[in-house]
Amino acid sequence: MRTLLTVVDEGTFDAAAAVLHVTPSAVSQRVKALEQRTGRVLLMRTKPVRPTESGEAVVRFARQLARLERDTRAELGMSGTEEPTRLSIAVNADSLATWFLPALSRVPAELPLCYELRREDQDHTAALLREGLVMAAVTSSPDAVPGCSVRRLGHMRYVPVASPAFAARWFGAGSGTPLREAVADAPVVVFDRRDDLQDAFVRKVVRGRRGASAVRHLVPTSESFGEAVAAGMGWGMVPEVQAAPLLRARRLVTLAPDRRIDVPLYWQQWKLDFPALAAVAEAVMAEAAEALDDGRAG
Amino acid sequence: MRTLLTVVDEGTFDAAAAVLHVTPSAVSQRVKALEQRTGRVLLMRTKPVRPTESGEAVVRFARQLARLERDTRAELGMSGTEEPTRLSIAVNADSLATWFLPALSRVPAELPLCYELRREDQDHTAALLREGLVMAAVTSSPDAVPGCSVRRLGHMRYVPVASPAFAARWFGAGSGTPLREAVADAPVVVFDRRDDLQDAFVRKVVRGRRGASAVRHLVPTSESFGEAVAAGMGWGMVPEVQAAPLLRARRLVTLAPDRRIDVPLYWQQWKLDFPALAAVAEAVMAEAAEALDDGRAG
Questions:
Q1: Which CATH number fits domain A157-262: 3.90.1300.10, 3.40.250.10, 3.50.50.60, 3.40.190.10?
Q2: Which of A72, A270, B99, B248 is deepest in the core (most CB within 10 A)?
Q3: Domain spans in chain B, listed from the N-terminal domain onward
């Protein structure tokens, strides 16, 4: 089981072998033995390897088992427990760029913790939880992953913005009035292929349009996204908290002060609670209550 | 061939079918037909699908073919050419967070371009080029991908930094003198599991140590990495250009003013040149010459 986890974490049999100080063929034999005992293929032999659906369940089980073992050892005062607790958490890019690190700084410093943050699309963070790669996730999905609990964090508010020069060129002096038609044709910045926010905004303000312009630039980091919009590459939906200082500095103008899109965010985590995870969850809920619109602490 | 590209771009047969307005089984049949004609399996049926090694070669070929076709149509003034040229480029996170967007703003604005930026580990960007997913990449690899040319951009300089409070606690008043032993034991921030920079620094300053402390936090975005270090989660290697303002504001102190790590960066792109790609390459070389240490324009 430990071998399986190591292979999943390291991505290849060779890397896992190096970590475990055994040969790659020993790693392969152990995984095969586990597959024979469970009667299922657990890993797809891709690069990096990926757990199958059955594999995901076993990986989740193995991680929680390792966790329980460690807690019990710690309670019994047994050796080998000095190493800090690893907390793997999947966080969507905009949360990581804004409120999530301040949330972690609320966690009591005396707790011996290591954070393993994974940055993922907010629609994809729940998948990492399902695959057993993380213990908790900030996600847009309210549907609980098996074996996990869900709490609402609040929502992140996105506002439509552009650089003053871009707005003047496409929407007339940045007044935002002749927006309806122009916004569907103006070049747009999107986060990646899966980012639907700009299209959702266009559907909201322009009846009958399926989405924003096909002239779209993909800029897949949270901070660069804002920079690309400020540089005039296109308009885009930027988290209000990130846009605020740029709006004040007149590096951005808003396209429609009364229009925005709210994306609900949830905290999903293993039901198997342990002190470190509980402390982080509490810090996350507390920060979300302050930093997110409509955030609730509990 | 177009079907194959769509499947690779969209990630699943179903999504490709929706884009192409055919049934998923038609998509599957076309891919199978292409596999029979080439006598090779081209796609691994994972989620998302991934090209096999043979598939990568065919994808690269198909993209360059599509490119040639479009250029020829444009030259002949044929219809269907008004849509802007899509330039897919893989960029490492630290470049995207620092000098890469300013480079793009050097590209003449009248060129009808859409950028599809992919953020990847600098050691992994070349793989995206090999897999045919991008046309160009900022990479740490000087080894040309088949069918691609390589030019040196310069190097990105990383400096070891920590928050003043962290430095005072672990290294004594931030003087940096008793660094040697402490740095191998102090908590450290790393970008992800593949980030070797902090370990490389420790190996450089502490003889006989294999790497930095096992107490390591993984913070996988460029900006959050700097924030996590400034928040005192650990020390870390931060690009000098990002560290400079934080050093001036005394939010960071340097651990060893005379020690740094230089990571060479290269521009790899398809040999099949076309005006838009050439214009971007020129802008990238020019910006790198100014923004990167030891950058050369040509």
A1: 3.40.190.10
A2: B99
A3: 1-82, 84-298
- CATH entry, B84-298, from 3.30.200.210, 3.40.47.10, 3.40.30.10, 3.40.190.290: 3.40.190.290
CATH code for the domain defined by B1-82:
1.10.10.10
Pairing of strands B136-139, B113-120: unpaired
Q: Do B217 and A116 touch (CB under 8 A)?
A: yes
Chain A residues with CB under 8 Å of B56 CB are none
Contact A251, A163 (CB under 8 A): yes
Cβ separation of B119 and A84 shorter than 8 Å? no
The CA distance from A156 to the nearest CA of chain B, in Å, is 18
Written as tens digits, the pLDDT of chain B (298 aa) is 889 989 988 889 999 998 888 889 999 999 988 888 877 788 888 878 888 888 888 888 888 777 777 767 666 666 554 567 889 999 999 999 999 999 999 998 888 889 999 998 777 888 888 888 889 999 988 999 888 899 999 999 999 999 999 998 888 754 444 566 788 889 999 998 888 899 999 988 887 788 888 889 999 999 899 999 999 999 999 999 999 999 999 999 998 888 899 999 999 998 877 788 999 999 999 999 999 977 544 3
**Strand-strand pairing, A85-92 and A136-139:** parallel
Q: Give CA–CA dist B64/A35, Å, rounded.
A: 42
| A46 interfaces chain B, CB cutoff of 8 Å | yes
**Is A53 in a helix, a strand, or coil?**
helix
For residue A48, say if its preceding peptide bond is cis, omega within 30 degrees of 0. Answer: yes
